[in-house]
């Protein structure tokens, strides 16, 4: 009674969030972790980039995000999401691609200890 006789299957639409997520590609946790561990002498000043918000000058290294101005960035520093990210990055090293490959059994084979050869 309440159904439309012509349409058998409900039309499924793709989420717009996945397309937006690809637009703002972020670095992986392992890359951010190594970036944070670099000495202060190796860290370069931010370059002007017209494609990024705020000309690329207001950046959060822990979250790998750019902001439009300093006040927005400072508000971000007070958020729960940023504080949680800082805590993760100050802890032990996150898993890398090598760890994932070894866990999946795709790493180098472990043949066990070498046996003494009888001479």
TrEMBL record:
Q: Which UniProt keywords apply?
A: Cytoplasm, Metal-binding, Nucleus, Ribosome biogenesis, Zinc, Zinc-finger
Q: Does the keyword Oxidoreductase apply?
A: no
A GO molecular-function annotation = zinc ion binding
Q: Does the keyword Isomerase apply?
A: no
Where are the residues of the annotated region Disordered? Answer: 1-21, 83-106
Which Pfam families does the record match to this protein?
A: zf-C2H2_jaz
GO annotation, cellular component aspect = cytoplasm; nucleus
Q: Where in the cell is it found?
A: Cytoplasm; Nucleus
Could you tell me which residue ranges the C2H2-type domain spans? 60-82
UniProt record, GO biological process: ribosome biogenesis
**Residue stretches of biased makeup (Basic residues):** 1-20
Q: Which family does it belong to?
A: Belongs to the ZNF593/BUD20 C2H2-type zinc-finger protein family.
Protein name (record): C2H2-type domain-containing protein
Q: State the organism of origin.
A: Eruca vesicaria subsp. sativa (Garden rocket)
């Amino acid at each position: 009674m309440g159904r439309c006789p012509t349409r058998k299957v409900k039309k499924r639409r793709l989420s717009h969030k996945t397309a937006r997520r690809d637009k703002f590609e972020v670095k992986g946790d392992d890359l951010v972790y190594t970036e944070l561990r670099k000495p202060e002498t190796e860290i370069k000043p931010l370059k002007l980039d017209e494609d990024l918000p705020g000309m690329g000058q207001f950046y959060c290294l822990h979250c790998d995000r750019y902001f439009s101005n300093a006040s927005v960035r400072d508000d971000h520093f007070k958020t729960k999401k940023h504080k949680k990210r800082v805590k993760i990055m100050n802890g032990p090293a996150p898993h890398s691609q090598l760890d994932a490959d070894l866990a999946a059994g795709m790493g180098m084979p472990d043949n066990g200890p070498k046996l003494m050869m009888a001479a």
